[in-house]
Amino acid sequence: MEKSVGESSSRRSVAEVQGGGYGIQIGYRTLSIRVDEKVAADTKPKKSTDPADAIATIDVHQIPTDEVYVRYSCSPSVGLESAAVERRLKDGRNIISPPPTQYWLKALNYVFGGFNFLMWIAFVVTILSYKPLGQPPAAFNLGVAVLLMLVIVVSATFYALVDWNASRIMKSIKSLIAEEASVIREGNQQLVPANDIVVGDIVVLSTGDRVPADLRIVQMSSDLRFDRSLLTGESDMIPGSLDATSDNALETRNLALTSTFVTQGTCHGVVFATGDRTVMGRLVRMSGETKFKLTTIQREIWFFTKVISTIALSLFCLSLLLFGVWLRKSYPGYENISNAIVNSIGCLTAFVPQGLPVCVALSLTVIARRMSKRNVLVKNLATIETLGCISVLCSDKTGTLTAGKMAVASIALLDTSMKTEEIEGKIAQAADPRMYAGLDAMHKVMRLCNGAKFDASTSGRPVAERVIKGDPTDTAILRFSEALSIPHLSIDSPSLLGKSRRLFEIPFNSKNKWMLSVMEINDVDEGEISEKESKTWMFAKGAPDILFRSCTTVMRSNGTVVPFDVVAMEELSMLQSAWSNEGQRVLALCRKPLDTFKGDLPPTDLEAVMYDEMRELTLVGLVGIRDPPRPDVHASIDVIRKAGVRVFMVTGDFKLTAVSIARQVGIVSQERIDTIEDVRAATKYRENVRPPMIKPSDDDAIRALVLTGEDVATLTPSDWNVVVGSYTEIVFARTTPDQKMSIVENIKSRGDNTVAVTGDGVNDAPALKASDIGVAMGSGSDVAKEAAALILLNNDFASIPVAIEMGRLVFDNLKKVTLYLMPVGSYTEFMAVLSNVLLGMQIPLSSYLQVCFSITNDVVMSISLMYEKPEADLMLRKPRNARTDRLTDWRLFFQIYLFLGLMAWPCCMAMWFVYMHQNGLSFYDVILVYNKWTDGWQGKSAEELATLVNTGQCVYYVTMVFLQYGNLLAIRNRRVSLLQSNPLWGPRRNLIVPVGMVGTALIAVINLYGSGLQQVFYTSPIPSMFWGPPFGFALAVLIMDELRKLIVRTYPKSLVAKMAW
Question: Which of 396, 627, 764, 812 does the annotation list as catalytic?
Answer without folding.
Answer: 396
